[in-house]
């Protein structure tokens, strides 16, 4: 059973289109993230939700809209796709419990979704 | 502010050499977590290790070892007797409970030549 799963793995689309990437985790974690990895391999945090509430929004264009219907799901919708949106998008989930909780701070990634905008 | 610096952009070694990947971090939080991930050419992010700020013990796992030193804010990663399969991009990351944020370094590309 995959801990963090993203779909689709590959997405090729034309400029101006709208697309979505879905993410699900079965770890019981309370926090989920979207990261963008560009062609230079830089991993940048985009958004984070904790218990369905948006807690991190890192100056991402409004064309990007995350949605978390429940703790186990975090989707990313992108409107009016641009060439510069081509990247690999990684979903991740983590657990932030008490400092003594052995599992607190753990971070697991999905396999990534490679988006190519033509 | 949080910051992770991996000053080595790319390292090339010959198989069986030892190699150390450097990671320096900055944070004002007293509770934080440090990670290393491996990203092979296939693209997935493979978790290697997580350490919390209260545990400065060094760790060894097979050919991999990690040296965590709070005094120098460093969390270095050594591969002993490197192999071609170790060729990948390696990321160091810092997570802080105060911000719920994980920040990644820019990665070090390791090339192990046969």
Question: Quaternary state, please?
Answer: heterodimer
Q: How far is it from the N-terminal to the C-terminal residue of chain A, by CA? A: 34 Å
- Number of E strands of chain B: 12
Summarize model confidence as the mean pLDDT of chain A. 91
Summing up helix and strand content along with how strands pair, one would put the structural category of chain A as mainly beta
- The global form of chain A is globular
| Element order of chain B: H for helix, E for strand | EEEEEEEEEEEE
Note down, in words, how this protein is organized:
The complex is a heterodimer of chains A (118) and B (114). By secondary structure, chain A is an all-beta fold. Helices cover 0% and strands 54% of the residues of chain A. Chain A has no helices and eleven strands. In chain A, the strands form two sheets. In chain A, strands 2, 4, 5, 6, 9, 10 and 11 form a seven-stranded mixed sheet that branches. Chain A has a four-stranded antiparallel sheet with strand order 1-3-8-7, with no helix packed on it. The N and C termini of chain A lie far apart (34 Å). The model of chain A has no long low-confidence stretch (mean pLDDT 91). Chain B has no helices and twelve strands. Chain B has strands spanning 3-5, 10-14, 19-21, 24-26, 32-39, 46-52, 59-61, 64-69, 74-79, 88-96, 101-104, 108-113. The model of chain B has no long low-confidence stretch (mean pLDDT 94). The chains are: A mainly beta (118), B mainly beta (114). The interface between A and B is medium-sized, with 27 and 26 residues.
